[in-house]
Amino acid sequence: MSDAKRSKPVLYLTQAAVIAAAYVVLTLPLAQFAFGPVQFRLAEALTVLAALSPAAVPGLFLGCLLANLFNPQNLGPVDILGGSLTTLAAAAATWQLRRRRPGPVVSPHRSRWDWLRLLFFLSPSVVLNAWVVGLYLPFLVPDLAVTVPVVLATMLSILLSQALVVYAVGLPLLLALLRTKLMTGDKWP
To answer: How many structural domains does the chain have?
Structure first.
């Protein structure tokens, strides 16, 4: 077996670990904004990495699992596992959508359709978190009267915050990484 083939699993695990660590570092210091019915989790910008590398799928899952596990306002196993599995599903969906895309999503001369396709490929994190986390979160927050309007407001809040982070922070990150070619070729699996 060649050195390149032997080092590929090590590279994959290293990349996943770096992404997981970055997720935790971007979440826990801002915990007061990253958890709860109204949340702004900056680390969700990293979900765009799943459009570039399969290593991001386990990396994002592990990072989210650790961040939820060490949440200062621990909401229990439903949030720890539910949020983490939602992130796993969203990252896997992003990777699969990216693999099945027709033609280049990001090109030097982007048309309106290229931009719409790019927004679509990054949407699993936004949509799944809004639906899944937004649905169960009101039931876990103490002293919150759970009504249909509260659940819908939580879902909308998470949808808007996810969209803001993924598209306003994550998309420029993705475009910058594509321009620098840091995540292409032999550097990423």
So the answer is: 1
Q: pLDDT tens, 45-75?
A: 999 999 988 999 999 999 999 999 998 888 8
> Of 176, 19, 180, 172, nearest to 95 (Cα)?
19
Task: Estimate to the nearest angstrom the gap between the alpha carbon of 89 and the chain centroid.
Answer: 10
Q: Which range of residues forms the domain containing residue 133? A: 3-187
pTM (two decimals)? 0.87
The 3-state secondary structure of the chain reads CCHHHHHHHHHHHHHHHHHHHHHHHHHHHHHHHHCCCCCCCHHHHHHHHHHCCCCHHHHHHHHHHHHHHCCCCCCCHHHHHHHHHHHHHHHHHHHHHHHCCCCCCCCCCCCHHHHHHHHHHCHHHHHHHHHHHHHHHHHHCCCCCCCHHHHHHHHHHHHHHHHHHHHHHHHHHHHHHHHHCCCCHHHCC
